[in-house]
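Retry 2 of 3 after timeout on previous attempt. Resubmitting structure tokens to design endpoint.
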């Protein structure tokens, strides 16, 4: 029984480290309140990416879409990115952003804390960039 508990703790520790590693690799925030404050100060849209380390589609989305240089450039120019684990970080971000399906991306107006645009499921790079542009156009009047 002790071995089972130790193995379970180790497995969950490895999963938590994976999201932290991804966030570090692509310069995403991990704290909702800090990211919101940064978005308000920088007049940028807050981009909340909701994932789970156990989710294969989330991993594919991170690896193939969010890590692509074109997407990284767009995000750093126009957004304050935040990555949240749907279950492990529950309670550390507003309930209205609890998505039933992951990966999910919420583009949030930092002034109102309301979602401008929500996407659910894996997206290829081009589709993601279209959604990012749509979110910017929805919020452009309020932020600039």
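Retry 2 succeeded. Sequence:
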């Amino acid at each position: 029984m002790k071995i089972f508990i130790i193995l379970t703790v180790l497995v969950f520790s490895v999963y938590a480290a994976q999201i932290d590693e991804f966030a570090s690799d692509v310069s995403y925030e991990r704290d909702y309140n800090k990211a919101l404050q940064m978005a308000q100060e920088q007049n940028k849209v807050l981009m909340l990416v909701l994932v789970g380390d156990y989710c294969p589609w989330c991993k594919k989305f991170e690896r193939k879409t969010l890590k692509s240089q074109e997407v990284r450039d767009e995000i750093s120019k126009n957004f304050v990115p935040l990555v949240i684990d749907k279950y492990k970080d529950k309670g550390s971000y507003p309930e209205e952003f609890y998505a039933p399906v992951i990966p999910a991306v919420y583009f949030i107006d930092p002034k109102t804390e309301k979602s401008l645009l929500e996407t659910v499921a894996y997206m290829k790079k081009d589709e993601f960039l279209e959604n990012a542009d749509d979110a910017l156009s929805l919020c452009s009047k309020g932020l600039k």
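Attempt log closed. Helices lie at 2-26, 32-42, 56-66, 69-78, 125-143.
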